[in-house]
What does this fold into?
Amino acid sequence: MKKKSINYTNHLLSLVIILIFTCCNKVEDSSITYTITIDAYTLDNSGNYITTGNTLTFDSHEQCQTWSRTVGADSHSSSSHLHYNAADEVSFDNESTSFNWTEYGPELDQASIDATCSAGAGGVSKTVNDVSYYQDKPNLYLKITSVVAN
It folds into this structure.
């Protein structure tokens, strides 16, 4: 009789442990992808964040995502022209609404940014969320403004 009681207790304990891990251990469904929209802001003299009207849109799983933006005259050109950037090693935490990526660029054309991203050298790690403003440049701040599950 004592042996049956021990087996019953062991089986019950095993069942309880399985239920705890099944119910309480949150496992993110990797089949769900998200579209993350990040807006760019500047900071005025009063400390207010002012939207620039520029947005970045990312996929939570796609690697080497590229985009371009128009920039003014710089060392590359005396007139406005495009700069290309890429995001790799992306990860999104839906629970904390934070998006991480390694950014590459700028480059002057699509082929160059594709090669830079594929090589994975010289990238800068960035983390943006929907609560605080991430300072990307001296007067450019990023913040998540939208997340859509696909």
